[in-house]
Amino acid sequence: MNQVRELLKIRYPIIQGGMIWCSGWRLASAVSNAGGLGTIGAGSMYPDVLKEHIMKCKLATSQTFAVNLPLIYPQVSDHIDIIIENKVPVVITSAGNPSLFTSRFQEAGIKVLHVVSSAKFAVKAQKAGCDAVIAEGFEAGGHNGREETTTMCLIPKVRDAISIPLIAAGGIADGRSMMAAFALGAEGVQMGSRFVATIESSAHESFKQAVINADEGDTQLTLKEITPVRLLTNPFAEQVKLAYQNGATIEELKALLGRARAKKGMFEGNMIDGELEIGQVSSRLDNLKPAKDVIVETMREFNSLRSQLFNELAYID
Amino acid sequence: MNQVRELLKIRYPIIQGGMIWCSGWRLASAVSNAGGLGTIGAGSMYPDVLKEHIMKCKLATSQTFAVNLPLIYPQVSDHIDIIIENKVPVVITSAGNPSLFTSRFQEAGIKVLHVVSSAKFAVKAQKAGCDAVIAEGFEAGGHNGREETTTMCLIPKVRDAISIPLIAAGGIADGRSMMAAFALGAEGVQMGSRFVATIESSAHESFKQAVINADEGDTQLTLKEITPVRLLTNPFAEQVKLAYQNGATIEELKALLGRARAKKGMFEGNMIDGELEIGQVSSRLDNLKPAKDVIVETMREFNSLRSQLFNELAYID
Fold first, then answer.
1. Where are the beta strands (DSSP E) in A10-71?
2. What is the ipTM for the molecules in this complex?
3. Could you tell me the end-to-end alpha-carbon distance of chain B, in angstroms, rounded to an integer?
């Protein structure tokens, strides 16, 4: 019995990451309608925008969906009220202390999943009463842990440290990587980059094209002194690199980053000056497809691989 | 039929990495006698020392064993002569162009495996006629690729790019991580850190203890401008970090690194001034054991997991 499916009341234990600027109600409802867990990314939404997306998502699907909520967001308290008032079934919290809000959500009947980048923080999330943990490796796009632990090393370490359900993130985009995550001890996966490159994602078309054109070595974890973030190489990322080479201070880096860079890149499609957050696994993506196809094809490959591993591939007499 | 076993004539498709200062004839023969592929690490050996280790290894095992040969080593030509004269069954080449020496080894009846960190270099290795490829992810210890691609992203990418047998390295230390590598498309694994922490490894006892004491975030990929290398945090690694913060030039970094740092740390046990090369997976190791136990326990977990994934863990109806 798969604990992630039981907990979230979903058909397939595949969670769509709540990526800023890419994950509105269209993507979330498409994923939920296909049997996964669709997620609205609140990190790039003002409270009224979030409310609109939740309401539209509810109209578009009768299935479980989630809101991803970075706890460091300045208007987090407004967001929490909206999530509770609108009875969102699941909240995925990240970038903050899960002990602050978990019980408030749970008292309202909302399941809480917390994103971590280490076993140490996974234990804290379990102690805070979270329903499950999403452990995200170094290869993941966007904001990331300082320990740089990869999914391969992170998942078994976390599995051995906690007893609540575990979902793997970072480097997962198909049935093979999903099966690898299960072998490591996860009972579900979260995919970000793969869902950026879908028809329903609200990413700008230019960003989607850049994602499927990305090759090996085209993303890099940077800005570690502010908040580590994995970016696709573009002129802005090159500027950041140059600033490091010139010994820029944290203040200078913050000034260079400025405001609204992520919106400019991922939502407005400015491939020169925008900040483009994406995972390493983008180097394995070469097409845009409907979110439903991602789910269906992933499960088909996963199920077929399950038999193949048992009967041939992992059979060592 | 597992291609890696067929190619190398070994019982279990587990290769012990040829780590400098840690992999002499004792470790190599113990691994080969246990059914894996033991490897002598030539990178830290003068030609006469290598010859001695090969001869002792042959006396200690009748099974297949290998020599790991970094192609950038200054005395590589002497090493090649010794390997051929002494009929070493397998050579694992790394850090250089595989098209230079592969056919010479093969004409002498020696199988050639080449270590790569990207699909691009895997294709080159296949074109050079190598018998198999070892693809090593960012989490691996010691010298590493510039692309920083993790094992989770690297293995399926390489699998789709080549047709010769593929061995996964980086983050692998037990049956769970071995099964993950197989799910991603590998037919064998190479483990380094796990074999450093064995009774038979020639690593200094202080280094072995430091390896099993390592926690999350305790290793870091550094010296990227010279040759990227993953080091365990110690006062020397802190010095390197400080040098970067102070905007050190490549020449200054090279001077700081100096000579014989790796020997000082890993072989002589100087935990202050020595260079300590180890993988991220060290954070998952908490004991020293005989090399044979590593092989036996890995295969036991791998085989048990194969059934569990099929019957329960990966069964999604």
1. 14-16, 38-41, 65-70
2. 0.97
3. 29
Closest-CA residue of chain B to A285: B157
A8: exposed, middle or buried (Cβ count in 10 Å: 0-12, 13-18, 19+): buried
Torsion sign (Cα): A84, A86, A88, A92: negative
Give A184-220 pLDDT, tens digit per residue: 999 999 999 999 999 999 999 999 999 999 999 999 9
Residue A60 corresponds to which tokens in the numbers above?
């578009």
Q: How far apart are CA B220 and CA B237, in angstroms?
A: 9
Other C-beta atoms closer than 10 Å to the C-beta of A51 total: 18
Residues of B whose CB is below 8 A from A179: 180, 183, 309, 314
Q: Is the pLDDT of residue B60 over 90?
A: yes
Q: Is 0.80 surpassed by the pTM of this model? A: yes
CA dist B233 → B149, B173, B196 (Å): 21, 20, 17
The enclosing domain of A184 has a CATH number of 3.20.20.70
Contact B176 A157 (CB under 8 A): no
User: Which domain, by its residues, includes B306?
Assistant: 3-202+289-313
* Nearest Cα residue to A22 out of A199, A239, A236, A179: A199
Distance from CA of B166 to the nearest CA of A (A): 13
The domain total for chain A is 2
- For residue A294, give the nearest of A27, A5, A10, A25 by alpha carbon: A27
Q: Do A309 and B183 touch (CB under 8 A)?
A: yes
pLDDT band at B259 (very low <50, low <70, confident <90, very high): confident
Q: Is residue A208 part of a domain?
A: no
In angstroms, rounded to a whole number, what is the distance separating the alpha carbons of residues B239 and B233? Answer: 10
Q: Are B222 and B248 in contact (CB under 8 A)?
A: no
CB contact under 8 A, B152 and A146: no
Residue B179 and residue B78 share a domain? yes
Residue with tokens 């904001």: A143
**Torsion on CA atoms B155, B161, B164, B169, rounded to nearest 10:** -20
Name the 3-class secondary structure at B135.
strand
Does A184 sit within 8 Å of B180, measured CB to CB?
A: yes
The answer on A165 and A45 residing in a single domain is yes
Smallest Cα distance from B102 to chain A, Å: 26
